[in-house]
Amino acid sequence: MADFLTDVHTLRAKARQGIMNGPVTAGYGADLARVIEMLNTALATEIVCTLRYRQHHFAAKGLNSEPVSQEFLQHSNEEQAHADLLAARIAQLGGVPEMDPAQVAGRAHAEYVPATDLRQMIQENLVAERIAIASYSEMIEWLGSGDPTTRRVLEEILAREEEHAEDMLTFLESDFAPPLTP
After folding, report:
1. Element (H, E) at 14
2. Residue 99 covered by a domain
3. Which three-class secondary structure state does DSSP give residue 96?
4. How far apart are the first and last CA of the chain?
5. How far is CA 128 from CA 48, 64, 148, in A?
6. Do the Cβ atoms of 42 and 143 come closer than 8 Å?
7. Is residue 2 part of a domain?
8. 3-class secondary-structure state, position 90
9. Which of 69, 2, 84 is nearest to 39 (CA)?
10. CATH code at 142?
11. pLDDT tens for the 182 residues of the chain, in order
């Protein structure tokens, strides 16, 4: 056996210590309270994004709105899936997912910006995706190797947020979004 691995008897003994901490063992390398706080901020951001995309889905009107509206709905569903991943991880780490509507909007990185113009909707969603990309990138960097499971969750969400940004940019560059009027 490799010298750097803990022997099986020590592993077993350590696993019995702090058993009520669930998956958080003595080897957990991050600041648990800060990780839960960070994840709750990410959760708030995802909730706000879910609602904004959903509002834009229903508010999108005009000749070119149908494909964009359907994309908004798909993104809303994906943002909700991100929120579920984050809430599950918070609970797994022993925290409480913060979903109080009175707290969510103030805690989120992204803003809830309702819009009536299709182009404005696309732009607001692109801005929110860029905010999400920047914040997830910072979170991943901060975590480093301290919590590889949370890092993987954030990396998975980041990849999807980058796809969302690309989708919004594609709409802005296409005929689906009428040009801005001065």
Report:
1. helix 8-16
2. yes
3. coil
4. 71
5. 10, 22, 26
6. no
7. no
8. helix
9. 84
10. 1.20.1260.10
11. 456 677 888 777 877 887 777 788 777 899 999 999 999 999 999 999 999 999 999 999 988 899 999 999 999 999 999 999 999 999 999 999 999 999 999 999 999 988 889 999 999 999 999 999 999 999 999 999 999 999 999 999 999 999 999 999 999 998 655 555 44
Q: What's the pTM? A: 0.88
Q: Does residue 7 lie within any of the structural domains?
A: no
Per the listing, tokens 């750097």 go with: 4
Q: Which DSSP state fits 179?
A: P
Range of the domain at 88: 28-173
Q: Which long-range contacts (CB under 8 A, 24 or more apart) does 103-107 make?
A: 103/44, 104/44, 104/47, 104/48, 105/44, 105/48, 107/40, 107/41, 107/44
What is the residue type of 132?
Answer: A
Can you read off the two tokens belonging to residue 23? Answer: 């998956």
Number of domains in the chain: 1
Residue 98 lies in a domain: yes
CA–CA gap between residue 93 and residue 35 (Å, rounded)? 9
Contact predicate 69/171, CB 8 Å? no
User: Cα–Cα distance between 108 and 132 in angstroms, integer?
Assistant: 10
88, 18 Cβ separation under 8 angstroms: no
146 φ/ψ angles, rounded to the nearest 5 degrees: -65, -30
